[in-house]
Every structure is written in structure tokens, then in C-alpha cells.
Amino acid sequence: MNLTTSNVVCPYNKPSYSRTIYSDRFIPSRTCSNFSLFNLSTPKSDYATRIRTALFGPESPSVTGQNIFKFKIETKQPLHSLLDDHLNGVIESPVKPLRTFPKSPCKILDAPGLEDDFYSNLVDWSSQNILVVGLGNCVYTRNGFTSKVTKLCDLGENDSVCSVGWDACGTNLAVGTRKGKVQIWDASQCKRIRTLDGHEKRVGALAWAKSQLSSGSNDGSILQHDVRAENHVSKLRGHKSEVCVLKWSHNDRELASGGNDNRIYVWNQHSTQPVTKYCEHTAAVKAIAWSPHLYGLLASGGGSADKCIRFWNTTTNSHLRCINTGSQVCNLIWSRNVNELVSTHGYHENHILVWRYSTMSKLATLEGHKTRVLYLAISPDGKTIVTGAGDETLRFWNVFPSPKSQNTQTEFGVSVSGRTQIR
∠146-170-314 over CA atoms, to 5°? Predict the structure, then answer.
């Protein structure tokens, strides 16, 4: 039999049949006597490695010792021909097209009265594609499908909006006020359901976990409310000054808080004492985001005296890495569609950065806001972000690719020129 390392001849010369590959031998589905895939001049381990790499790529499972490497391959041509094509570079892997990032926003909304306040959280985007923004003493919603703008509430001249937050279903909206109140609104009915008391000063941070609502205040406290109960469930004490941000993990088991005392605390639902504390930041922490891709991975950003994004493993209570961004970090948000995150910045750049995790290579810099970018939210399909600033504009950016499981497109994803006033 004539046999070389690049050509294998089988007496059953059929165009297609199943074969089974082992780590060091080839067995066709019909028996061929005196048949071997290797000649004496080629080391078996080296040739087996070339075959695995050609067929399955460099990420294929490794084989050590006498472990059996076994896959069933359905081919449209003889295996030796397929191997020759791969090894000689005839068959090339498809090249993914390069991703492009926008140089300008796809939409700009005027938002007169949007405060330049580092300690407020005035923008959120619901799972029902409803954008909410707090302007002065009023709250407005905008339907992403119909572009309809609705004035949800007016707190009056003696109070103002400090924070807004949708629940997971996108039906109930929490509004934190300067007087220390938390109002719950049914957005579809434009009806206030109830008012929650307990804080002594303004409520600038809100976060939902099912029927539980967490609120953080300038009085340094965090209140846990069960919206079905009459009073708050518990009070969390740890921060020595204002609570700037609250974020529940994606499984609703852990609550992260950042404060004006430069501290980060991680809490669970079973204790009023923090389970973890991080003190490495040297300025107020307003930016916090839980990774949707890695359990326990938390990102945080520090203010103008810090300028750093830090990453934490909350399961091992360890500090992973620190990136100096060169400017005040105002907000962080993680993409659900790809393993990337967005940071928005204040002094002195006022720009938006897109990062790839875990290399933290900078993918894009988005510019346009005239003042620090204090507000950030993401669309329900995970493709578009909205940023807000004290320049009284909301800007929409098509940043992330579509999720693999859906191809829906919101109205905000369509490129539109010009401005639309939000009220």
C-alpha cells in the first residue's frame, strides 16, 4: 500500500462516510486491514497534534498520556483530502468584520433642568423600553416605541427629584426626593401607589430586588423596604457620609453600595452588617456595576481625586486590578451582550469610554457632552446606551452588538438627526 503523511488511500473510495478519530489511530466505519494514519518517519504525537489543530482549532481538548481523544466527524469528502486542505492553508477560517463605533450620537434629546449634581441619579431605562428622567421637581417618561413623552408627576415647589429607579418588570417606578421621601408610582396609570418614610435627608440612590427596594440617603443610611409591607424592613449602617449609589447583583443576593466616604460595602439579605468592605478608592464612589458574565465580579469607579476603575472578586474578597482613567469616573455599566463595559467621566474630559474586559483595552471614546457625564442607562435589548449631563442633553449611542438570542430593534436604535425636546 502506498502511504504518506499527506495522503491516505483507503480501498473503500466513497465520497462520504463516518469516521472515528482516536489519539493515535484511524478507524473507518468499514474495516480496512493493514491501515495506519502515520508512517514511520512522523512522530505520532506531533502528527496527532496537527490533526487536532486542523480539525478543531487551537482550542480543542488536549490529550496527555494514554487519554483517548475521540470525536465522530461527518464529512462530505475523504478525510485525508480535508486534512490536506487544512494543513496546506486551502481552507481558511472566516474573518469576522471589524466592529465600528459611532462618532456621534444617533439621537439627542433636550432635557432642560437636568441637574449637574454628582450625588443624583436621574435617568433610568425600563425593561418595557420606557425611559425616565427627573427634571427639577418633575418626572417625565418617554416611550421608546411611540416616542410619546408623559409627565408622570410634579413634586411641587418645595421638593425636587434626586433619584429614579424602575423595578425589574418595568411597571413600578421609585422616586427619591430632596426631603427624604421615596414615592412608588404605577407608571402605566400615572398613579402614586404609596410614599415611604424613614430618611432624614435627600435620597439619591435607589435599587430594586424583586419586591424589595433599597434606598440610600445623605444621612448615611440604607433602608430596605418591602413594598408590600407598611414600614421598612431593616436599616443598614456602614457609610459615614452620603450613600451615592446602590446596585443589586444579578441574582438579587448581594447589594453593593458606594459612598462619599470613599468606601464600598457589600451586603446580603440576611444581615444588617456588611459582609465585605473595600477602602482602596481615594474619592467618592458613585460608579458601581456587577458583571452579568462572571459571578461575584464587581467594578467600581472613584471621583475626581481618584480617577480609577477597580475590579473586585466579592466571592474571595480580593482586589483584582486598577485602571487609572485620568478623569473623574461618574458611572459604569456592563454590557449583557458582550463582555465589555462603559464608563462615563467628568473632570476634565467629559467623555464616554468603552472597554473590553478583562484586558481593559480601550475600544472607543465617545465625545459630545459639554459638561461631566453624570447619568448612564442601557436599553432593554442591550444595544444602546443613553448618557446625560449638566449641559441639559440626553444622548443615545449605538454601542453594543445585538444579543445572539434576539434581533429586536428599539426605536432608539434608528439613526435620527436633529433634536427632540423632552418636554
Answer: 130
DSSP for 273-326? S-SEEE---SS-EEEEEE-SSSTTEEEEEE-TTT-EEEEEETTTTEEEEEEE-S
Angle CA(3)–CA(6)–CA(7) in degrees, nearest 5? 50
Give pLDDT tens digits for 327-372.
999 999 999 999 999 999 999 899 999 999 999 999 999 999 999 9
78-115 exposure pattern, b = at least 16 Cβ within 10 A, e = fewer: bbbebbbebeeeeeeeeeeeeeeeeeebbbbbebebbb
Closest CA to 273 of 220, 235, 299, 316: 235
CA distance 400 to 323: 22
Dihedral class, residue 350 (left if φ above 0, else alpha if ψ from -120 to 50, else beta): left
Q: Hey, CA dihedral for 38, 39, 44, 46, is it positive or negative?
A: negative
Mean pLDDT of the chain: 82
Q: What is the pTM of this model?
A: 0.75
pLDDT for residue 126 is more than 50: yes
**CB neighbourhood size of 141 (10 A):** 23
Instruction: Identify the pLDDT of residue 131.
Output: 98
